[in-house]
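Thread amino acids onto this structure.
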């Protein structure tokens, strides 16, 4: 699963994106780059999300993610590092967005996000425009 997220016509930079399907064993998570592009990881880097209907959350990050290189491509990580990152992302996604968030807070919580995406087997690509 790859995609691009914009808000008010501008790329959403350095945000955490998560996809969660009912009954899925874990989240699919990614981080947007300078152009708002992301790819999702569930078990191994860039493997996408499990097929099904997903609630999508998008949260602003205060800092540039360290797993991104200067060129914007993801660094190679060990399975242990990926597991730690997935656990941290699950914790971050469960917390409400702070008052300094750049995006509408509804997108930061799976209970209030109105973003729904159906993921099919194979390659999936989408454009998401966030609104107020």
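Threaded sequence (132 positions):
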């Amino acid at each position: 699963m790859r995609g691009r997220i914009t808000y008010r016509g501008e790329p959403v930079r350095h945000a955490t994106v998560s996809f969660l399907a009912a009954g899925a064993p874990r989240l699919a998570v990614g981080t947007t780059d300078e152009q708002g592009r992301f790819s999702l990881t569930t078990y191994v880097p860039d493997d996408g999300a499990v097929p099904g209907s997903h609630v999508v959350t998008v949260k602003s990050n205060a800092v540039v993610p360290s797993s991104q290189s200067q060129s914007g491509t993801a660094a190679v990580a060990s399975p242990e590092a990926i597991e730690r990152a997935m656990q941290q992302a699950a914790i971050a996604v469960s917390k409400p967005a702070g008052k300094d968030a750049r995006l509408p807070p509804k997108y930061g919580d799976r209970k209030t996000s109105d973003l729904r995406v159906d993921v099919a087997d194979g390659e999936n690509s989408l454009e998401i425009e966030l609104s107020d």
